[in-house]
Amino acid sequence: MLVREMSQQECESLLARVGRGRLACVRNNQPYIVPIYFAFEPGRLYGFATMGQKIEWLRLNPLVCVEADEVLSHTEWQSVVVLGRYEEFRDVPEHLEERLQVQARLEQVNHLWWDTGFAAAQARGRFDRDITLFYCIHIQEITGRRASSDPVEQR
Ligand SMILES: Cc1cc2nc3c(=O)[nH]c(=O)nc-3n(C[C@H](O)[C@H](O)[C@H](O)COP(=O)(O)OP(=O)(O)OC[C@H]3O[C@@H](n4cnc5c(N)ncnc54)[C@H](O)[C@@H]3O)c2cc1C
């Protein structure tokens, strides 16, 4: 297997294509990671959530890491790691424009963008529209690695 660095364009293309990854945050030196859906646009990831542990932690420390990948086989895969900063758009009039923009982007990527966040709220026994959150992750750094099979190994 050969592993090489992915270009910025390849990384962005993967983020746009997969629309799904893992969001890691940290509180008091304790990491926490959960799968999320997102919509990519240059410089940003957009997401939707309801109020729970990850949002509580992100409010305390907005620095995040997101990983997304596409695994075709043991030797054919791509993985992208994003470092960024979380910004929240709460359900208040001042954030209406941003919320509509994020919602429109999420809708383009996945018409069920809202489903998992609401299901998480139900799992917590809370279902209140006031706790819906749209957010943006401002991308500060992207790196990617891509594996392919090594023709020499196959001989
Ligand atoms: C493919 C996929 C996409 C998803 N997309 C979204 C999304 O876009 N928005 C969204 O809000 N949620 C999404 N989820 C669900 C998400 O991973 C979390 O389960 C959910 O958001 C609740 O997280 P929370 O931090 O608010 O946990 P809380 O509801 O506050 O619960 C915290 C407790 O539950 C545990 N826990 C929470 N989530 C998980 C988990 N996934 N696996 C194991 N233990 C868990 C924590 O360790 C902790 O003990 C997605 C899940 C999957 C599999």
Defining traits:
Pnp Oxidase, Chain A, 5 helices, single chain, binds flavin-adenine dinucleotide, elongated, 155 residues, 8 strands, alpha+beta
Overview of the structural elements:
The protein contains five helices and eight strands, in the order βαββββαββααβα. With 155 residues, it is of the alpha+beta class. The protein has a single domain, classed as Electron Transport, Fmn-binding Protein, Chain A (Pnp Oxidase, Chain A, Roll), CATH 2.30.110. Strands 1, 2, 3, 4, 5, 6, 7 and 8 form an eight-stranded antiparallel beta sheet that branches. The radius of gyration is 17 Å and the shape is elongated. The two termini are 13 Å apart. The structure holds flavin-adenine dinucleotide. Flavin-adenine dinucleotide binds next to strand 3, strand 5, helix 2 and helix 4.
Bound molecules: flavin-adenine dinucleotide
CATH topology: Pnp Oxidase, Chain A
Query: Which CATH class applies here?
Result: Mainly Beta
Radius of gyration: 17 Å
Structural class call reads alpha+beta
Sheet-strand content, in percent, reads over 45%
- What's the number of structural domains? 1
Poorly predicted runs: none
